[in-house]
Design a protein that fits this description.
18 strands, 7-stranded mixed beta sheet, Aminopeptidase, about 25% helix
Length: about 450
């Protein structure tokens, strides 16, 4: 059954634009997706010096069907004029009053691309709006409409009828068009020196792996749905805090796939409360957090193709792409430990984000101020004893992966394995015996509401 396009309001009468959330079981949507993948994402890839096969990879389709990826089109009339792919995630924000880090629902924007000829036509058609004599770009309209839809919870993409607190993205450092679009949304593309995206293509670097590490690192599950205790299938976090709780670093790991190739990818967001340890200690902390994250990725089988059963030995560690938008010291420390610069084709990528509470002219755009996002609670490990299954849903079913029945497993103790092959009782016994002292290194084998209609703005 098709999901009907929802018209974007407040455009001239002769301009019909709409948003479509892709249903991977709808034949017409699949035709549109194939065309958009070849023409629109192919154009984006060519700008970055990367190539595409011209066909939607099987793993990308499986990721859409299992809710790892979401896809939306912007339509002008009956033509697909743009595509956006995203991954549901969580984000960390500093609470300046408490000096603690709070976790919010977020959105990782993988790609957004519009047809250049259709964009020029759309600008000409929208010059009739008195407030925008130069017309409105499709990219701007698309971005606003996606946020508006998440607030309205039209397709269930917002878990509580509120906008995502933060939209995370990576862009080429010299992408002036995206920089202009981001600035209209209150987002800033930072410098390559301070906020470049880093990449671990082959697991931990030798420098990370050789470090003795620290304690006070814990893995915590994130909620599948707000106010529910079931664990999210595709997100978890790792946290380090000092004994006096004055220093805190949070790492949020998100499962996704490359939209170009379908290969598994993990997106990692790192954030601190602004009070970091010295550079030597920081490296020990980050290395331990990476080891804990890799152990959980291994156990969940995120490096395996979507739908593959996870064996007792887990799975390989996929490419990890790291954002530390507000912490250049973290970027520097990871770089010095061997993390490489992330490039798409031949373009250096930098981290950027849109904080929805900082979007300007919200009353003009949305008819009112956006609802303030509220933090979510991590899963209480003592109460939640379930580890999710990762079997792909049947193509005959329209039930997404978040409705797959979970299987029981004891996840109450963090897994801080020095290698991804160490499993089971030995790891959990080590974690139970860890001494909570963040300043003393440990041995390598020791554990560790609906919104009024959108009024678009240029």
């Amino acid at each position: 059954m098709s999901i009907k396009p929802e018209q974007i309001p407040n455009l001239p009468n002769d301009v019909q634009a709409s948003i479509v959330h892709v249903n991977p079981y709808d034949k017409l949507h699949l035709i549109w997706l194939s065309q958009a993948y070849k023409n629109l994402l192919g154009y984006e890839a060519s700008i970055h010096g990367a190539g595409l096969t011209g066909h939607v990879p099987e793993q990308v389709m499986k990721a859409i069907k299992t809710n790892i990826l979401k896809v939306q089109f912007i339509m002008v009339g009956k033509e697909v004029a743009g595509i956006a792919t995203s991954a549901p995630t969580f984000t960390a924000k500093r609470n300046k009053k408490t000096n603690k880090i709070e976790i919010f629902e977020g959105d990782y924007l993988e790609d957004i691309c519009v047809d250049q000829n259709m964009n020029k036509l759309f600008r000409r058609l929208t010059t009739l709006i008195p407030a925008h004599p130069k017309g409105i770009g499709l990219g701007t309209v698309f971005s606003y409409a996606r946020i508006w839809q998440s607030v309205k919870d039209v397709f269930g993409s917002a878990q509580s009828g509120e906008a995502p607190a933060k939209i995370v993205k990576e862009v080429a450092h010299d992408n002036l068009a995206m920089a202009g679009s981001m600035s209209k949304l209150g987002g800033v593309i930072r410098t390559a020196k301070d906020s470049r995206v880093l990449e671990l293509a082959n697991g931990l670097t030798p420098d990370m792996d050789k470090r003795w590490g620290v304690n006070n690192v814990r893995k915590e599950d994130l909620p599948r749905k707000r106010r529910r205790k079931a664990s999210c299938l595709n997100n978890f976090k790792v946290t380090w805090s000092s004994d006096d709780d004055k220093q805190e670093i949070v790492a949020i790991f998100t499962r996704t796939v490359s939209t170009f190739t379908g290969n598994p990818v993990v997106r990692l967001q790192l954030a601190s409360n602004g009070n970091l340890p010295d550079s030597i200690m920081l490296k020990e902390v980050l290395a331990t957090m990476m080891k804990a994250g890799n152990a959980e990725i291994n156990e969940r089988g995120w490096g395996l193709p979507v739908g593959t059963s996870v064996s007792e030995f887990g799975g390989p560690i996929p490419v990890i792409r790291i954002h530390a938008e507000d912490d250049p010291e973290i970027v520097q420390a990871l770089s010095e430990m061997g993390a490489e610069d992330r490039k798409c084709g031949d373009k250096l990528m930098v981290a950027t984000a849109i904080h929805t509470d900082k979007i300007p002219n919200q009353e003009k755009i949305f008819g009112q101020e956006l609802p303030k996002a509220s933090p979510v609670n991590v899963i209480d490990q003592s109460e939640d004893k379930y580890k999710p299954c990762f079997n792909i849903v049947s193509e005959a079913s329209e039930t997404f992966a978040e409705d797959i029945v979970a299987s029981k497993a004891d996840t109450s103790i963090p897994t801080l394995a020095p290698t991804r092959r160490i499993r089971g009782k030995a790891v959990k016994d080590n974690a139970r015996n860890a001494v909570k002292n963040p300043t003393r290194p440990v041995k390598k084998d020791q554990a560790k509401t609906d919104v009024p209609p959108l009024g678009v703005a240029a």
